[in-house]
Amino acid sequence: MQRFGTMIHLRPGYEEEYKRYHADVWPEVLSKMTECNIRNYSVFFRDHVLFGYFEYHGTDIKADWAKMAADHRTQEWWAIMGPMQDPLPTRKAGEWWAEMEEVFHLD
Predict the structure, then answer these.
(1) What pLDDT score does 14 carry?
(2) Does the global pTM surpass 0.85?
(3) Distance CA 60, CA 97 (A)
């Protein structure tokens, strides 16, 4: 299992809409995430920063990312979420949500 922390900015004015969508995430999107070996996924919000945490339980994350990205319903979800988000200028090439470095963990 791999743990991931990611972050992105939420554009001002989208707080309530973003929360409303995430209070009722589309079942097909949740299913696809589970199918792609994503578990224990949480998104936290403060001061226009979204922090995501999830655990990856698969063996080929690149293949699972590609499977998720190819999913029509997930693409629809991302098309709605994308304009609400403002990626960090310091993110790596190819990232939307910037991956964070884990510096401490306690089980």
Answers:
(1) 98
(2) yes
(3) 19
